[in-house]
């Protein structure tokens, strides 16, 4: 294998940038598999594109080849991640690349999967296919951070989100909304980009949320609802309970009487028994491990102060969005404060020191 650095043209960068856009569009929607983008070029013209299918199969390379209406002999394939080379539920992408006589393969990032890592390069080169790697490496490596994290740690990549008023309240009786409609749309976009969403039963009982994505045309990509409910105290008249089934709702609990368990099981809800810590709270690190086993790869936590604080103190968020409204809420009636600012600043770095403005609200993104 050559160690010299490959040189790439502006056209190469343009095609790989398109492949990255294709991959980005499917982030969070490809199940256990990473989202990959693929572009096939012949005679300086794009002749086909492909993305990883919803739920992960078929792969982007297969889809791009299948989508082409002309012979691929002599073409160049641009793909964001090293093509797979092993049999799984589908044949290896390297096999279909070789079969279709593609002349050159340029991929950006080496796959961290041990079954793939570095092997595809050798397989394709052995068939006299020109292979180059590293194009837009920094940008695409950043895109695959959640996938790399999943593979290395056997945990979902966790995004936190909370909205606070100017005087740092997350709830005030009688106030229906803290942030404006622009922030609401970003919240729904985050729900679209994560396969699962976690709240506590307390938030559920207080707010009766829907926890779905309400962006036009994307409702069917709403995340699976993950509820932390020690004694199965959630309101059975709530929207979440009424719309629950075995595919969209998981509840973690510690103990409950048999009659109550039966009510939840009759709804088809997936009940997961989990242990508590000495302080009586769930061991959220253990729950994350269980969620990974359940194929959760990207988790959004829309918790209140208590749940958010438990993740922050243990540094379990990979990134955290703090939405801040310019309006203050009343402290004359029942209210709740967000008091995790000190731990956020201590345990996370602010990605951009200048806060992003979205409509009337400011948004600060904290990252590990």
How would you sum up this structure in a few lines?
This protein is of the alpha/beta class and 368 residues long. Strands 6, 8, 9, 10, 11, 12, 13, 15, 16 and 17 form a ten-stranded mixed sheet that branches. It has a five-stranded mixed sheet with strand order 2-1-3-4-5, with helices on both faces. Strands 7-14 form a two-stranded antiparallel sheet.
Roughly what percent helix?
Answer: 25-40%
Using only CA atoms, what is the Rg? 23 Å
How many H/I helical runs?
13
Q: Give the overall pLDDT as a whole number.
A: 92
The coarse silhouette is elongated
Element-level helix/strand string = HEEHEHEHEHHEEHEHEHEHEHEHEEHEEE
Strand coverage percent: 15-25%
Give a quick account of the main beta sheet: strands, pairing sense, barrel closure: 10 strands, mixed
Q: Which regions contain 5 or more consecutive residues with pLDDT less than 50?
A: none
Class from secondary-structure proportions: alpha/beta
Report the span from N to C terminus. Answer: 34 Å
> Count of DSSP E strands?
17
């Amino acid at each position: 294998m050559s160690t010299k650095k490959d040189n790439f043209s502006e056209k190469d960068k343009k095609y790989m940038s398109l492949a990255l856009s294709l991959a980005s569009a499917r982030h969070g929607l490809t199940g256990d598999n990473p989202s990959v983008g693929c572009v096939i070029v012949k005679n300086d013209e794009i002749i086909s594109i492909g993305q990883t299918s919803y739920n992960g199969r078929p792969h982007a390379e297969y889809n791009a080849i299948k989508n082409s209406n002309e012979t691929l002999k002599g073409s160049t394939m641009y793909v964001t991640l090293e093509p797979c080379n092993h049999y799984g539920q589908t044949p290896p992408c390297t096999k279909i690349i070789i079969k279709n006589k593609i002349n050159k393969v340029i991929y950006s990032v080496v796959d961290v999967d041990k079954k793939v890592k570095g092997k595809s390069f050798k397989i394709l080169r052995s068939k006299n296919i020109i292979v180059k790697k590293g194009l837009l490496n920094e940008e695409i490596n950043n895109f695959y951070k959640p996938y790399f994290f999943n593979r290395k740690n056997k945990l979902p990549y966790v995004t936190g989100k909370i909205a606070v008023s100017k005087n740092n309240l997350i709830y005030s009786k009688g106030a229906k909304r803290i942030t404006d409609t622009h922030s609401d749309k970003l919240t729904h976009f985050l729900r679209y980009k994560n396969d699962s969403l976690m709240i506590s039963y307390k938030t559920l009982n207080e707010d009766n949320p829907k926890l779905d994505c309400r962006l036009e045309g994307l409702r069917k990509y709403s995340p699976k609802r993950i509820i932390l409910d020690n004694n199965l105290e959630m309101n059975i008249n709530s929207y979440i309970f009424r719309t629950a089934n075995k595919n969209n709702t998981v509840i973690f609990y510690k103990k409950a009487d048999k009659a109550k368990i039966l009510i939840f099981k009759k709804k088809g809800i997936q009940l997961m028994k989990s242990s508590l810590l000495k302080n009586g709270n769930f061991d959220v690190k253990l729950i994350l491990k269980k969620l990974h086993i359940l194929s959760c790869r990207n988790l959004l936590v829309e918790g209140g102060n208590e749940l958010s604080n438990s993740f922050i103190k243990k540094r379990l968020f990979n990134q955290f969005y703090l939405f801040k409204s310019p309006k203050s809420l009343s402290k004359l009636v029942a209210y709740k404060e967000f008091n995790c600012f000190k731990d956020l600043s201590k345990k996370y770095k602010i990605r951009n020191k200048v806060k992003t403005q979205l409509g009337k609200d400011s948004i600060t993104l904290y990252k590990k």
